[in-house]
């Protein structure tokens, strides 16, 4: 019984955390931010994983120049519980850490930003993390797989907010950008968030 008690406590805490996380659509998930993330505008279907049939919506994202560098803007909306509408949006930024070399084959960037989501309550999040990837391809096929990780510092406001005013979430993204045209004018972007975030995104990005 003594061995089972810590596991039971852990499951209860995990359930509470997932319940709080499920009440909102995290604005930064999936982040869609990695080395060589393209400039332009994209329209995406996003599933913020709030529950069966909940949390699915659309997101519009724009970036002024390839990452790292410049800023990215995003905004989206999804159906929440009881057919409520949840809106989320924010701005991201990135800076280079180091480029791929013979000693280390990946490009690495630092990522951050600030944004908010509103549904039953207001949630403001500031992610801080790193992303690593390496673009590759031929004249016609371009492939950019990446992995990113982040800590998200959060604040909650409103009558229906969680008991705590502040929280910390940890997330990992697995994603890839794929293009089949020589000029990479149109790029298919796919990503999934894991950890304290549970989200999927897929859409078409057009370079401006």
The total domain count is 1
> What share of the residues lie within helices?
under 10%
With strands numbered from the N-terminus, the spatial order across the biggest sheet is 1-2-3-4-5-6-8-9-10-11
Q: Write the element-wise H/E pattern from the N-terminal end onward.
A: HEEEEEEEEEEE
Q: Assign the CATH topology.
A: Porin
Determine the structural class based on helices, strands and strand pairing: mainly beta
CATH architecture: Beta Barrel
Summarize the structure.
With 208 residues, the protein is mostly beta strands. The protein has one helix at residues 4-22; strands at 40-51, 54-63, 71-79, 85-98, 107-118, 122-133, 136-137, 142-157, 166-179, 186-195, 199-206.
How are the SSEs ordered, and which strands pair?
Blueprint (H helix, E strand, L loop, with lengths): L3 H19 L17 E12 L2 E10 L7 E9 L5 E14 L8 E12 L3 E12 L2 E2 L4 E16 L8 E14 L6 E10 L3 E8 L2
Antiparallel strand pairs: 1-2, 1-11, 2-3, 3-4, 4-5, 5-6, 6-8, 7-8, 8-9, 9-10, 10-11
Provide a descriptive summary of the structure in words.
The chain has one helix at residues 4-22, and strands at 40-51, 54-63, 71-79, 85-98, 107-118, 122-133, 136-137, 142-157, 166-179, 186-195, 199-206. It has one domain: Porin (Beta Barrel). Strand 7 and strand 8 (142-157) form a beta hairpin. It has a 10-stranded antiparallel barrel with strand order 1-2-3-4-5-6-8-9-10-11. It is globular. It is mainly beta and 208 residues long. It contains 1 helix and 11 strands, in the order αβββββββββββ. It starts with a helix and ends with a strand.
């Amino acid at each position: 019984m003594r061995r089972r008690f810590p596991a039971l406590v852990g499951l209860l805490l995990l359930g509470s955390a997932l319940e709080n996380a499920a009440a909102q659509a995290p604005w930064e998930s999936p982040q869609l931010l990695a080395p060589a993330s393209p400039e332009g505008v994209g329209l995406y279907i996003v599933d913020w994983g709030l529950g069966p049939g909940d949390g699915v919506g659309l997101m519009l994202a724009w970036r002024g120049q390839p990452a790292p560098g410049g800023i990215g803007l995003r905004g989206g909306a999804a159906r929440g519980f009881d057919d409520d509408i949840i809106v989320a949006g924010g701005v991201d930024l990135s800076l280079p850490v180091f480029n791929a070399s013979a000693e280390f084959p990946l490009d690495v960037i630092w990522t951050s930003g600030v944004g908010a989501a509103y549904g039953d309550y207001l949630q403001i999040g500031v992610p801080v993390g790193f992303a690593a990837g390496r673009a590759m391809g031929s004249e016609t096929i371009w492939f950019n797989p990446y992995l990113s990780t982040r800590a998200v510092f959060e604040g909650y406001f409103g009558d229906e907010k969680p008991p705590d005013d502040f929280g910390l979430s940890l997330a990992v993204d697995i994603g890839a950008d794929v293009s089949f045209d020589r000029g990479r004018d149109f790029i298919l972007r796919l990503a999934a968030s894991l950890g304290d975030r549970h989200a999927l995104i897929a859409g078409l990005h057009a370079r401006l």
